[in-house]
TrEMBL record:
Belongs to the glucosamine/galactosamine-6-phosphate isomerase family. 6-phosphogluconolactonase subfamily. This is 6-phosphogluconolactonase. Keywords: Hydrolase. Its EC number is 3.1.1.31. Pathway: Carbohydrate degradation; pentose phosphate pathway; D-ribulose 5-phosphate from D-glucose 6-phosphate (oxidative stage): step 2/3. It is an enzyme of class 3 (hydrolase). Gene3D superfamilies: 3.40.50.1360. Hydrolysis of 6-phosphogluconolactone to 6-phosphogluconate. It comes from the Eukaryota. Residues 44-237 form the Glucosamine/galactosamine-6-phosphate isomerase domain. It catalyses: 6-phospho-D-glucono-1,5-lactone + H2O = 6-phospho-D-gluconate + H(+).
Amino acid sequence: MIKGSSAWKLIHLPTEIPHDRLLFRFLCASAGMTGRRIVVFTSSAELGPALTHLVTSRAEKAITSHGRFTLGLSGGSLVSMLSKELLALPQLDCSKWVVGFCDERLVSFSDPESTYGVYKSQLFSKINIPDSGILTIDSSLPVTECAEDYTRKLKEAFPGEDFPVFDLLLLGMGPDGHTCSLFPDHPLLEETKKIVAPISDSPKPPPQRVTMTFPVVNSARCVAFISTGGSKATVLK
């Protein structure tokens, strides 16, 4: 499922974990964390606060360490969960956050399939993150040019780095095991040089997308997979 660094080998789930439970799995490369961890919750009411604590604690450490917090977001059920929990925090300060998207669908921002569009309506419009801190695609471009444009934006946001090093990436996982828009048996699984890759034949609609590649995922200081629902249980195990 995850290729590249040996730190990304999947570890087996205990067979006694019920299929209807929620899983929160994260891998952190920094010395402050203990490596791979799997945490299982019985409901989103338990998962949400734990996820929010991870985000805010990593943000505090990153801002103290190097003056900003860089966060990569995914869509799906994560949007509403994260938005609800962050907005419930008193005195949330996102003025030093820089947010990118782990993958994005090539649709207009007003389309409900747009990950940025949903985050903008549910979260960004309600917090003090500056517009310059949100790295979006240009959905008016053809998919290849869109990937190149987004690559340029990431390079500008992460100067001097071969691959952007995000403080935290929040990833989802499909029932087929894909993360970002990196699907099983797809040629993009072998990509080692590009930061962002275009995809025009996504098995899951819409077909045109741009996605971060495995080198970017594996360069992050901390990566969390948030998986919910029984349809994910078999492939995750």
